[in-house]
Amino acid sequence: MKKLALHWKIIIGMVLGVVYGLIANKLGWVDFTNSWIKPWGVIFVNLLKLIAVPLVFASLIKGVASLSDISKLSRIGGKTIAIYLVSTVISVTIGLFLVNIVNPGADFDRESIQLSENSQSGADKKIAAAGNVKEAGPLQFVVDIVPTNIFSASSNNSNMLQVIFFAILFGISMVMLPSEKTVYVKGFFDGVNDIILQIVGLIMLAAPYGVFALLGGLVVDFGASSTLFIALGKYSLTVIAGLLLMVVVVYPLILKMFTKVKYLDFFKAISPAQMLAFSTSSSAATLPVTMERCEDHLGVSEEVSSFVLPLGATINMDGTSLYQAVAAVFIAQAFGIELDLGQQLTIVLTATLASIGAAAVPGAGMVMLVIVLGAINVPVEGLALIFGVDRILDMMRTVVNVTGDATVATVVASTEGELRQVTEEELMS
């Protein structure tokens, strides 16, 4: 009997999780689900987060140290950042185009919808967090990249840029030293990297069950919010349409322009990472799987993936940027505020820069949206209008973020001659 591929197992886990959640809501199993099912999903996400920092640190040092000269690193870095910025601008532009065409907030009746206490309090927290970000100054995200203590930085996944900075600095220093002085250090990090990848494989054995628990708990949590979902359906569909355009149009075009990889093959290779991104709503938590799929199933060299993907997980937020554009205009429409061309161009600039600075901010998407709203003089209180559906949309935009990371990694590898041909067995496994 043919072994069932991982992505099919994850899909089955997702479907069963949704079905279970619906049944649990119907039969009143809310407390049971929260006590006995949901924690397993939390454990699965924690396992993925557990290995994110050591994986990035070890693989990045290994990748940089394997370079024959520093100029190659600067070339790869330049290409990576340039493509990330271009794709972010494209995503924001698509979001603005759709929200202006659909106009989802034009007939929005704020008086008819009672915002839940959770939505209002959640929005207030994000507004407060955004205030702290704005007070810090425009270059604070650059300051935050340089850690004062690498051990402290490694203790928190939100400080991933600091870990990347130190790992690159460490790797560059190894390249500059004579090989006889670093041979044992290289061997050590090679071994650590292999061990971490083995741990990833073990964790992925539990992926279908973790996804089941995550989605089962999610459906139970939001089972009573149907009124709000209906009221915000037009807005949600606009965001989803933009995200789909990125996945089925923009990324395939980028792949076609710069690589020989067929998008169907690309999708088959990274689908497990996409499923996990949807379930966890975290690019960082999905990072170990994204790296494994790109290296083993797309043929991206470890040298490229270990640099491009961790960087993408922290600064490349195409899905989040698109959502910010749609949400900002929607809230403005809901308040009856007309946005001129200058204000919409401000959204493009602010959302693009916000995606870079979002890594160090908890609840990045919603927090950075507050900053975007402030830049165009739209009441930040409007955040409460969309808070109820944010969790679902967050799952979808994370899929786009991860897909964008994998696309850029494939493009950079192809342009650098670091993309090997994969067999059909490797692609489907």
Tell me what you see in this structure.
The protein has 429 residues and is an all-alpha fold. 79% of the residues lie in helices and 0% in strands. The chain has a single domain (6-428), classed as Sodium:dicarboxylate symporter (Proton glutamate symport protein). It has helices at 6-27, 30-65, 70-102, 117-135, 140-145, 150-153, 160-176, 179-204, 207-221, 226-231, 233-258, 263-280, 283-298, 302-315, 318-334, 341-357, 364-375, 383-386, 390-415, 424-428. Helix 1 runs parallel beside helix 9 (207-221) and helix 3 (70-102) crosses helix 16. The chain starts with 5 loop residues before the first helix and ends with a helix. The relative contact order is 0.18. Mean pLDDT is 80; it is low at 112-120, 224-229 and 359-363.
